[in-house]
Amino acid sequence: MVDNDTASNMDLGLRSYNPETNSFSALETASSSGASTSLQTIVVPVDPPVQVDNTTTSYRLRVAPRVASSAHLLRGARIGYIVSQVYLPSVLK
Question: Which DSSP symbol is given to 58?
Answer without folding.
Answer: E
